[in-house]
Design goal:
Layout: H1 3-18, H2 23-31, E1 52-55, E2 58-60, H3 63-73, E3 80-84, H4 90-95, E4 101-106, H5 109-121, E5 127-131, E6 144-152, H6 158-161, E7 164-175, E8 182-189, E9 195-203
Parallel strand pairs: 3-4, 3-6, 4-5, 6-7
Antiparallel strand pairs: 1-2, 7-8, 8-9
Helix pairs in contact: 1-2
Length: 217
């Protein structure tokens, strides 16, 4: 690593710390350089806390938003996590630092193939990236301890809640009461069925989750 790269990494870590990212997540962010998961043309700015276009009309969220969503998810070492919206695989690799297994679903085949290659190159054997529609995954019958959805949902989002084990939790975005406002929310499935929602603060750069498969755009 060159001196300039080391300085950029240090500045990135300090910026994330200033935004309240805890120590475990900071270490994960240091182990998973964002530049390795972004399109090459953005390598020089991937260390900034900004959203970046990634192809297929999609956007990679700012690292602070990714970190806030992972923090809200509270992943445990025994958890099997389902990620909806793989994107570049950056959040996938971060989740893999905490979870027993990560199943990541991406509706755009191009993005799924590219992210899968990045994840393999990074040596994450307990991650499975699939070209799949997260809204249809419940039909497989598999349920997860945690679900993270990189987009805005409309409660009750039953197709996504059905992916959860009893007492499982899902983190996603929700349109806030103010114009253009977004919130990070955690939905927890009670043992007896009801869903409990907690607010984890403002978000940005999230789009409504979409259904259906697409090969490319």
């Amino acid at each position: 690593m060159s001196a300039s790269e080391a300085e950029e990494r240090a500045q990135f870590t300090l910026a994330m710390r200033a935004k309240g990212v805890d120590l475990d997540l900071l270490r994960a962010l240091e182990r998973v350089p964002r530049a390795l998961f972004m399109p090459q043309r953005f390598a020089d700015i991937s260390g900034r806390d900004i959203a970046l276009p990634i192809g297929c009309g999609q956007t990679s969220q700012p690292p602070s938003v990714v970190a806030a969503m992972i923090a809200a998810l509270d992943v445990q070492p025994t958890d099997v996590v389902c990620e909806i919206g793989t994107g570049t695989g950056y959040c996938t690799a971060l989740l893999a630092q905490f979870a027993k297994e990560v199943v990541s679903l991406e509706r755009f085949e191009t993005l799924a193939v590219e992210a899968s290659a990045r994840v393999r190159a990074f040596g994450l054997a307990h991650v499975d990236v699939r070209w799949a529609d997260g809204f249809e995954e419940h039909a497989s019958g598999r349920q997860f301890d945690k679900v993270i959805a990189h987009g805005l949902i409309i409660p009750p989002a039953r197709a996504l809640i059905d992916l959860l084990q009893p007492r499982g939790a899902m983190v996603a975005g929700l349109a806030g009461p103010g114009r253009g406002e977004q919130r990070i929310v955690r939905l927890t499935l009670g043992a007896d069925g009801p869903v409990h929602m907690a607010d984890f603060g403002r978000s940005r750069a999230l789009r409504p989750l979409e259904r259906g498969l697409s090969r490319a755009l």
